[in-house]
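Appendix B. Chain record.
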Amino acid sequence: MSCRMNVPLAGMVAGCVLASFSVPADAVTLFENPFDAAAAQTPWCDPCSPSQPSLAGTIGGRVWDTFTLAAPSTLQSFRWVGLRNDPLTLGVNFEIAYAPYNSPVFSTHYDLSSISIVNVNTNSERRLVSLPDIVLSAGTYWLTVYGPSVLEKHTWWGQVEASGDNSLLQYVGPDPDHPSGVIARHQDARFRIDGTLNPVPLPAALPLYGTGLGVLALLAWRRRRRALAVG
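Structure tokens predicted for this chain:
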């Protein structure tokens, strides 16, 4: 809807206010830990597997990292980077929580067929999954994406970020669901979240709308009063 000046003023204001809440939002990048070619890169196993004998004491290895939303948002997709030799035959699990191993705000499983994969180079691939419109308030959250079994390795690239919070944590132990320890890796996982910024709910705008109508009514009353005085 366009705001046209050839309609009554009060109707124009009402139409413009309502139109501002009816235009669908375009998808934007809500949060990203981007690739930095100059940064130290590390593929963290998430989980590790018995096929990695040097990591026999740290089977599990679930990785968590933070993301921050500057405004209320709807999360629509998530992408991350891992090693190309990850089997992924069992798919991945994905969780969002207020803290690692806390009650999840959102949790689901993705089969391999629902993961879009693009080869980045000879070692890495970018993975993408669609999210079912997860609505979150502004704030900081934790997320993890991991292989559902310690029998199948899954990796998640991390890097030291000069402008990041480097909050990546790797939990270790034979049981990923009940870790025996945690290691602060001082890196950020490479991932991106896309979605839409949520508009201010209409009720929150009603006081502003009412104030505008009141001003218009006052101006109309003054015009009528001046017209009567002249007449």
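Further analysis of this model is presented in Appendix C.
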